[in-house]
Amino acid sequence: MRNGFLFLFLTLTSFTLFSQQLTVREDLVNPSKVINDARIVLKVEGGQEPYTYKWSHPETPLGSAEASGLTEGIPYTVKITDAKGLSVSKEYIVPASSITEIFNGTTQPIVDAIGSVLFWDPFAALGIYDPVIYDDEGHAMLYPNGDLRTISAPFIVIWLIIGGLFFTLRMKFINIRGFKHALQLASGKYDEPDAPGSVTHFQALSTAVSGTVGLGNIAGVAIAIAIGGPGATFWMILAGFLGMSSKFVECSLGVKYRYIADDGRVFGGPMSYLVNGLKARGKEKLGKVLAVVFAVLCIGASFGSGNMFQSNQAFDQLQGQFPVLEGNGFWFGLIMALMVGAVILGGIKSIAKVTEKVVPFMASLYVFFAILVLVMNISHVGEAVLAIFDGAFNPDALKGGVIGVLIQGFRRGTFSNEAGVGSAAIAHSAAKTKHPVSEGFVALLEPFIDTVVVCTLTALVLIFTGVYHEAEGLGGAQLTSAAFGSIISWFPYVLAFAIFLFAFSTSISWSYYGMRAATFLFGKSKRVEFVYKILFLMFVVLGASISLGAVLEFSDMMLLAMALPNIIGLYIMSGEVRRDLKEYVRKLNANELFRKPVKTKVKTTK
Q1: Per-residue pLDDT tens for 503-531?
Q2: CA distances from residue 362 to 186, 345, 366, 372, 538 in whole angstroms, order as listed
Q3: Domains identified in the chain and CATH numbers
């Protein structure tokens, strides 16, 4: 009898302990060869319901036993907790099967590692500000998995902003005192047809602007306003203002240290001034290292951000408005590649002839509709202006406080105009001029057009219409489209067309940037140029045909990383540019530079 009770006791105890344990069964699902569509489905037994699931994937809700939209080949963790606090942790990897999945899964850890450097936030690490994002009621915002939503001041943004501030002070506010002269140069008042170079000031400006004005002005601004509120607009404008000085410095040097071959081809940009400019200062080895790093990064960015991303997003926007295109990414990419090829095979002169027509048209089209929306909402102008300044300076006004709003504005401004990245200096180095500083003046208009005008108009449309309040579940381009569509019902079709033009013009400009980086690394032969162009066109088709995933993130980081070697060189050579500027202004005011008399003088400084 005693043994029977003991057996019964042990059985009940074992059953109780077993019932308290959490047993997890998983189903790892990889439904297709497309990247980032993996799923993990869990079945939990034991413990006491309800269960909570704390996934490492931030977009999976706490109450969900299924995580979707996962990257194949990447580990994900989940902590399962029952109603009594009993928990168990698991780690899963959905195996990658297709080549694209394997490549994407392999690239993602590299992207994360590079991102941890470029997007490291020194201010948050030092506890200078609270990186948590708060809603309008002051409550901390959470991801679906329960993690806090945070905002960061990336190191690369700080690097670009400090550079812009330094050059603004170093050049004694050239972005203000040189603005009128820049307009005169761009308008052709002082064109020098017989000067060395391949394109006019306006053509160089159009080529460089076409490389920066794009989806970031539409989608990126919408995301910045949705997260940072209207106050981000002020800081975005300030970032554009500071960027004007960075563009002035890098493009002046781009022309000064360019090399013009016997056949008229121009080789310039950061690769040239980093090598030759630093060599003149006894820093030849440093210059070569910085130039090689820049060129490698530039080629990577040209194939990714300047190519695949453009064709991918152009197709995505057009198929959203025209369902007949769905599933025909390859054919769309092929047509776009033929269009791009018809332009870039003719070199910088052909590119400039197209951009000088496309850029003014697409910019005017977008600006016209933006102003139309603002006029139709003119009654909201007072509250919009108040919201911008209140949000920019009142720490309790909007999400994230002043620091959070400032970060969003600076981040969008710097990422949009690429001032300090060095890419535009490649285009401007082809300008017909005998005076390098004159092209620096022309270049300072780019951040003004890109950020101060186009980005600001996008922000104002979002603020005037109030659509940024309804950002939940909408992407950046969708948000901007909804803002315009609230006034002009058929505008989404216009926006899709505008995005295609932006993508097309960006691609042809970046093909030239990447090609010049390739000729620096592999020689200045026309064969190198031809091989690069063919590869570039192949990537246009590829970008429209596949999902990009980590490959795009990697190329984005390569673009931003170009600012590291470039700005180091600009710091070292800034004194030289300042002296050249002073001499240029002296000669300009004395009518010694151009044949045509100068009626408007540039303000001199002591």
Answers
A1: 888 888 888 899 999 999 998 888 998 99
A2: 18, 23, 6, 15, 26
A3: 24-97 (2.60.40.1080), 156-589 (1.20.1740)
